[in-house]
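W.,

You were right to be curious about this one. When I first looked at the sequence I had no strong expectations either way, so I just let the prediction run and decided to look at it fresh. Below is the sequence, 351 residues in total, followed by the output.
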Amino acid sequence: MQSKENKLPAQRTVRIGEVIAERGQKTRGFLQVGETATGPIQVPLVLINGERDGPVLCLTAGVHATEYPSIDALMRLTRELTPETLCGTVIAVPVVNMHMFANRLGFVSPIDGLNLNKIAPGGRGGSISEILAEVLLDEVITQAEYHIDMHAGDLGEILYAFGGYPMTGHMGRDRRGEALARLFSPRLVALYREGSKLPAAAGSIVLEATRRGVVSILAESGGNGTLEEADVQVHLAGVRNIMRYLKMIDGSPEIRGQQLIATERYVTRAARAGLVRLKVSIGEEVQRGQEAAEICNVWGDTVERLTFARPGITGLIWSHKAVSTGDPIVRCWISEPAPHFAETDCFMRSK
């Protein structure tokens, strides 16, 4: 496996499929992956090849193509970045899953019903989502040293922003991966470890990219099919912060305020069916025994009062208002103050 330790010079020609960017060029086009009876299945690409040497950074959005803040942020970034001001190369995919985007469908492909972020590394012998996963990893992401997979909560998911990185046991790579996650996140950082209470998501694009030697992080902000400017700004600020750390653009990175490291998470579920009256908001610090939600039957009688089993931070709220037994209501992060970290401590600023 090719090492990603060394910088790739911006002077080289960057080519992915038929999309080519010489030194000092910004180009865009499509990478064809397959076809349906009605036309091609293709991935939009933007290649920005800087005039000066630097790292190669891949940015992807729209793996789940109803997570709009990440998509909008990446569209804006590809328009703002220029070869004249860029050190290194940016490989950007504004919408990975175009058929999901066109069909306004959350989680799974309308073609084969698969979740692209649960089937990596995929394979060319599989269905179209499996082919797309392999092409994305082999032909796009592994051309880079660094990768940011930009997401939000999907349809029905209200999400608290965070940055995540799957630890590999490779000291140098993990140092940089944790740095990127801390630099993206406004507050919460998740460092996934196999065998821990916070393992990485099996089959995810980020996990598979790290296994191939890329420093790859998950960047989350926004959710529930909305496009709020504040959520877009979290993505923009986080990616720019990382690019400053990598010395790809001018300026100094900053981390504002005390960050938290997630150690595990748990879900509060309904035991009874009915209408949900939520008692908490996203990002709220909650205590053991605090009321999370009230469930009412069709007569308006309260049949259950859900309480939190442990202290935590509400990280994901499912927006559905009618529930059955076993349905999730709220997922909480368990966290602790982030310890000192030499790679990013110098960027800490008080609010």
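Here's what jumped out at me. The chain is about 20% helix and 35% strand. And, maybe more interesting for your project: The first strand starts at residue 14 and ends at 16.

Coffee later to discuss?

I.
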